[in-house]
Specification:
With 391 residues, the chain is α/β, with parallel strands linked by helices. 40% of the residues lie in helices and 14% in strands. The protein contains 13 helices and 13 strands. It has a 7-stranded mixed beta sheet, sandwiched between helices. Helix 5 crosses helix 9. The protein starts with 7 loop residues before the first helix and ends in a 7-residue tail after the last helix. The model has no long low-confidence stretch (mean pLDDT 94). It binds pyridoxal-5'-phosphate (PLP). The site of pyridoxal-5'-phosphate has 13 residues, from helix 5.
Length: 391
């Protein structure tokens, strides 16, 4: 068998359940797809036009590995305002989406056998980002009953001499949870006390409903040990352009830039011009998008909480509703596949996000309201057909 030549760690990686569900749905007609976490909005026309103009003017060459100088400067100013601390251009690296920041960060940090603690449920790609450099992902289970907020005491008990990193994601995919400030404070203290590096995945930072977004990187002692991963994908409806960025302390970024350099040379020059246009241009379309996500999440949550046998927390951020289906007599995979077969609705089984996600399904509110309503009607009909799980 030739595939034995493939590294065991790579062979062991599964394909993305999220993609698999979407591929399963591709052959069916009339599907309402609440699967993929991708904004349905196109990149605003003005952003695309500006990028194309720049391309026509010759911005089609390699750019420095760190990124297009104007984009890096614009991001340094934006991040400094957002965090209230000065983040200079030399501490920023442009990456191929948030995915690029996660993989470059972990490839830079992990020695084989190093442990990375990740509150679970978590974004499934983390498994691969940790596994590829030889690390071990150690889940930190969270519970519906606690609003999926990680417990600092449990975190402390999970730390071993091999723990190098804590990987946080707030606002969270798939739960929509935002880590409250007081919990963030305690996690920061634990990170400092145990000399951990924190990777803070903040790709949904602009999609918070209610309280303003807070970053763990602003806590005392954290600037020198936090790698913040962010992206233009969700904030600016730019998933296909593949532009993200990360920032952190100088000792780390000087090496992250080498990893990005040797793996990609640089991120697409035209994509970076689009990101610059998005940051410098009119912010109205992005504010509208954010508002649309908030009202869609509200619509879905309001429907779910009135359905018999289902419940969900009202999301504080991102654009997902994580629905508890434990009262029904189906596990999350059976729920998602039967829902697709019988009612043509795609949702993602919660177990794809780790064992603590079993008993839940994720709904991505990335369709306009009339389609979401249709999806909810079908979900209600489907769920109504299943009895409660025997006590
Ligand atoms: N992090 C989280 C939590 C995500 O949900 C995603 C995408 O869904 C990403 C990172 C990566 O996004 P991108 O690479 O498009 O920036």
């Amino acid at each position: 068998m030739m595939d034995e030549k493939v590294r065991q760690r790579i062979r062991e990686l599964g394909y993305s359940v999220i993609r698999e569900m979407s591929e399963r749905a591709a052959d069916l007609d009339g599907v309402v797809s609440l699967g993929i976490g991708e904004p349905d909005f196109h990149t605003p026309e003005e952003v695309t036009r500006q990028a194309m103009e720049d391309a026509l003017k010759g911005r089609t060459h390699y750019v420095p590995a760190r990124g297009d100088a104007e984009l890096v400067q614009a991001l340094a100013e934006r991040v400094s305002v957002q965090t209230g601390t000065r983040v200079g251009p030399d501490r920023i690296v442009i990456t191929p989406g948030g995915m690029g920041g996660l993989s470059a960060g972990l490839l830079t940090l992990l020695e084989p056998g190093d442990e990375v603690i990740v509150p679970e449920p978590f974004f499934p790609s983390y498994r691969a980002h940790v596994a590829m450099p030889g690390g071990t992902l150690v889940p930190l289970p969270t519970r519906y009953e606690d609003g999926f907020v990680p417990d600092p005491r449990a975190l402390e008990q999970t730390i071993t001499p091999r723990t190098k990193c804590l990987l946080l994601n707030s606002p969270n995919n798939p739960t929509g949870m935002v880590i409250p400030g007081r919990i963030m404070d305690r996690m920061a203290e634990i990170a400092v006390r145990n000399d951990l590096v924190v990777i803070s995945d903040e790709v949904y930072d602009q999609l918070v409903f209610g309280a303003p977004f807070e970053s763990i990187s602003t806590r005392p002692g954290m600037a020198e040990r936090t790698l913040v991963v962010n992206s233009c994908s969700k904030t600016f409806a730019m998933t296909g352009w593949r532009v993200g960025y990360c920032y952190g302390p100088q000792w780390l970024m000087d090496h992250v830039v080498k990893v990005v350099n040797y793996s990609t040379t640089c991120v697409s020059s035209v994509g970076q011009r689009a990101a610059l246009a998005a940051i410098q241009g009119d912010q109205t379309p992005f504010r509208r998008m954010r508002d649309a996500f908030e009202s869609r999440v509200e619509l879905v949550w309001n429907r779910i909480r009135k359905m018999k046998g289902l419940r969900a927390h009202r999301p504080s951020g991102a654009f997902y509703v994580f629905v508890d289906v434990r009262e029904l007599s189906l596990d999350s995979t059976a729920y998602a596949t039967s829902l697709l077969d019988e009612e043509r609705v795609v949702v993602i089984p919660g177990v794809a996000f780790g064992q603590s996600g079993e008993g839940f399904v994720r709904i991505a509110c990335t369709l306009e309201e009339s389609l979401l309503t249709q999806g909810m009607d079908r979900l209600e009909r489907f769920s109504g057909r299943f009895g409660r799980r025997p006590a």
